[in-house]
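Hi team,

As requested, here is the filled-out complex form for the adenosine monophosphate run. I kept the field names the same as last time so the parser does not choke. Let me know if anything looks off before we queue the next batch.

— J.
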Amino acid sequence: MKIILIGYPCSGKGTQAKFISKKYNIPKISIGDLLRSIILNKKNKKYLDIKKKINQGELISDNIIISIIKKRLSKKDCLKGYVLDGFPRTINQAKIMDQNKFKIDYVLELLISKKKILKRMIGRQIHIQSGRIYHKIYNPPLNKNRDDITGEKLVTRKDDTKKIIIKRLNEYNLFKKEIIKYYKKKNKLKQLKFFKINAKKKLFIIQEQIQKILSQ
Ligand code: AMP
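And here is what came back:
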């Protein structure tokens, strides 16, 4: 089961990817999480440049992303499948994925308004080492500012400010149409299955819908 989740930053891709990963016992692969753990505590120029770009809400070059994803997908745990969160973000990434014969069975597009996203993103906290996500109001940790599992400190992402969030949403819109068109065409050709999901609905309703889709 090889799945791609597409949607605005904070549309719930991380949460749904975690659900799918647990339910179907396949790894959840978030490029954002991989990047953040790669640059954590690194001081050389290459990594500082990546960090700067992430903090400013800019996309990392396709070359770097492709090399990270190829390495990750060739690991043994991906043989049974995977759920990708935050990849592809450009049409080039989608095409290179196909050229490298990394098959995709399902593409799920999570639909939600920009207004709702802004509400969700302000107050978000993350445990960088694991990628676990919390929210000060909607999903607070058991102990303030601490990860539930390790007790380590939670941080607010530098790119979770209103200004940068708007930049990231615009960046997503820039590539979205092309990517969706690409996958819809593949859906028509029966090379994969493409579905839209209303991500404004309650969590259990979204998850029920996902389960129904993945059993088809
Ligand atoms: P995310 O955690 O998915 O919100 O991603 C955080 C940041 O990581 C993005 O704003 C980009 O700077 C970078 N990033 C994540 N995935 C990709 C990708 N597929 N292509 C380029 N940059 C990416």
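Two things worth flagging: The chain has two domains: 2-112+163-214, 123-160. Residues 9, 31-32, 35, 53-54, 57-60, 65, 86-89, 93, 159, 168 surround adenosine monophosphate (CB under 6 Å).

Thanks,
J.
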